Amino acid sequence: MPSARPRxxxxxxxxxxxxxxEAFPELARNRQVDNRPLPTxxxxxxxxxxxxxxxxxxxxxxAIFSPLKVKSAKVMRDNDGRSRGFGxxxxxxxxxxxxxxxxxxxxxxxGRLVRVRIADPPKEGPSV
Length: 128
Fold this sequence. Notes:
The protein is an alpha+beta fold. It is built from four helices and six strands. The strands form two sheets. A four-stranded antiparallel β-sheet has the order 2-3-1-6. Strands 4-5 form a two-stranded antiparallel sheet. The longest helix has 14 residues, at 10-23. The radius of gyration is 17 Å and the shape is globular. The mean pLDDT is 79.
């Protein structure tokens, strides 16, 4: 009877992804990086993509960007409370946003590499 393989934890998966990108940095460079101009004033917000899973939460999302200065993190959810696969992280300063953008596809959350882009500014509602 074959022995059961031990399950790898999410932190093991995250560590493996980091090791792969350290060993093969061209994998991260070949991914599309957002080169649009940075905002000149707050909010300094990044769109974070590829964050699927029941375990995804705001504190985990904010934690992957430490030691950068994170002001807030929001995971967008559907009506059933499941992650819609994206969220937003607001940084306290432009320097932190720029640092996060430079490492896109190098951060991982729940075993998945995340995409970091400059968030589009909020759309203004219709004038009344």
